[in-house]
Specification:
CATH topology of the domain at 418-499: Immunoglobulin-like
Largest sheet: 5 strands, antiparallel
Distance between the termini: 44 Å
Shape: globular
Radius of gyration: 24 Å
Oligomer: single chain
CATH class of the domain at 418-499: Mainly Beta
Length: about 500
């Protein structure tokens, strides 16, 4: 089912200078189920283009609004698109500068028959007019969550999920330049999957970033590699027993590999951290991987990264911070710059609407013409607000802002072994997570007491350089133990652990 945003007031934070001087646009709607939220923004030499959605009939109909505004935010022109008794979801954009045309892609959902199909809008910027195109509604859901133009400009590729096989599975659709279907594919094992991002590879194939639900209800990251016709070459899951499925955004890097951004569960805790990794399209193997903790609060790289000319990356996200004003957790937008191996250069928290207890959803990140960045999305407050904010090339929303530094180093480095055990102390179960930067042969976990006596010898996951193991320690005596991982008679890593009652 689709989520509809209700009870929304829009707040646009706009700036056409490098810093600050934001204009605020506030409008309260008397109808409780009115809703607006920002879904895209474009800047030009003499005007700006805003694209947002407005719910106009609770659960049944919305409209997409495109507004042309001058540099002082005065309205110059607008166009409204709606389909009776349908909800339009726009999830991708392609701007053809030479032809002054904008294509918006996503899907359209009928409340009456509860079905969905791919959908496109074609916007002529010179005449400021729009036409649309969508296939007949399918017998089930065909939902497009990400929509991008093909490198050869012959059409578009979109990904999401489909229920045509009886459950939610990864969906990939290739269409021509007028959004008519060329081919479509459904992938995934039995169960529940949902794709959120697709990128075209150098050979014309595709990499899909998705979630897959485990039997325990938690999510893992799922990457699917296809050829140019959508034929699957391989699929691979990443993660452990908890929610490690946050890496839903995939980007083709200039070196031909794929950058995955999202979140990953912190071992020994109940929260998720920012996560980023580089993988090889040939087999999905990990080149390097970083996980960043921010104290005791949840953080998430939410947007697809932008790769800069010097090979650095900029990515938007969300982060929970404690608010003394509300005596609770408030979610804020973030923007982070990292080098080509994931080392943080700067990291900013953008305190949007700080006088409300809010939950931020960051929908997009775009590079501005002056080297800065635009971030946009919506937030939940006592109402729900759309937001758009401009920062400079250092991520600052105002001059000389201070960096917000991470509170701890990455949990493991790509060139060092990583071995973590939790919780501390372990009561009935103990989680053992290990990762090594090389292939290891038949790893074994050995457990010793304080006298050096070997108590347990537990074979681990075959030849995998990474593992995530839960152990039953309910019958272990209270006290201290030593653990080590051994491969080919070599000790790779050691750890001291505590079992309590």
């Amino acid at each position: 089912m689709k989520t509809i945003l209700l009870h929304l007031t829009i707040i646009l934070l706009l700036s056409n200078s490098t810093h600050g001087q934001n204009w605020y646009y506030n409008q309260n709607f008397p109808t409780a189920f009115r809703a607006k939220y920002v879904i895209q923004y474009y800047e030009f030499d003499d005007y700006n283009l805003f694209i947002y959605s407005e719910l106009i009939q609770q659960g049944k109909q919305n409209r997409i609004i495109l507004e042309k505004r001058d540099l002082e935010h005065n309205l110059l022109d607008s166009v409204i698109i709606s389909v009776p008794d349908h909800i339009i979801f726009i999830t991708g954009f392609d701007f053809q500068k030479d032809e002054k045309k904008l294509t918006l892609g996503g899907d359209i959902w009928s409340a009456e028959v509860d079905k969905s199909s791919p959908y496109c809008l074609f916007f002529n910027m010179e005449g400021f007019d729009v036409t649309d195109q969508f296939d007949a509604l399918t017998p089930d859901y065909d939902v497009i969550r990400n929509f991008v133009r093909l490198k050869d400009s012959t059409g578009f590729i979109g990904t999401g999920y489909s229920t045509r096989n009886g459950n939610s599975q990864v969906y990939l659709r290739k269409s021509d330049n007028i959004c008519q279907t060329i081919w479509e594919k459904v992938y995934g094992p039995a169960g529940w999957q949902d794709a959120h991002s697709v990128t075209e590879l150098r050979d014309g194939g595709f990499m899909i970033g998705a979630w897959v639900k485990q039997v325990n209800g938690y999510l893992n990251l799922l990457l699917i590699r296809t050829d140019s016709l959508g034929v699957q070459k391989w699929s691979r899951q990443y993660g452990g027993m908890y929610d490690d499925g946050g890496g839903r955004q995939v980007l083709l890097m200039s070196n031909g590999n794929v950058l995955v951004t999202g979140s990953k569960h912190r071992i020994g805790d109940i929260i998720n951290d920012n996560h980023i990794m580089e993988v090889r399209p040939a087999d999905g193997s990990v080149v390097w991987e970083k996980q960043y903790g921010h104290g005791e609060y949840y953080s998430y790289f939410y947007t697809k990264a932008i790769e800069l000319e010097n090979k650095d990356f900029v990515v938007g996200g969300i982060r929970n911070l404690f608010s003394s004003e509300f005596n609770g957790i408030v979610t804020h937008s973030t923007i982070t710059r990292l080098d080509s191996k994931g080392k943080i250069i700067w990291d900013r928290v953008l305190f949007l609407n700080p006088h409300h207890l809010n939950i931020i959803s960051q929908q997009g990140l775009k590079q501005a013409g002056d080297g800065g960045y635009w971030l946009f999305g919506y937030m939940h407050t006592d109402t729900q607000d759309g937001w758009l904010i401009k920062v400079d090339s250092l991520g600052c929303p105002y001059p000389d802002c201070d960096s917000v530094q991470v509170s701890s180093d990455p949990f493991y480095l790509e060139n060092e072994p990583y071995f973590r055990v939790g919780p501390v102390p372990a009561i009935n179960e103990m989680r053992v997570y290990y990762k090594f930067p090389y292939e290891i042969s038949a790893p074994v976990l050995e457990v010793f007491d304080l006298q050096g006596r070997k108590l347990y010898r537990i074979p681990l996951n075959g030849y995998a350089p990474e593992g995530d193991v839960w152990m039953d320690v309910s019958d272990w005596a209270h006290g201290m133990y030593f653990m080590q991982i051994v491969s080919d008679h070599k000790v790779l890593a050691t750890r001291k652990v505590m079992v309590g009652r």
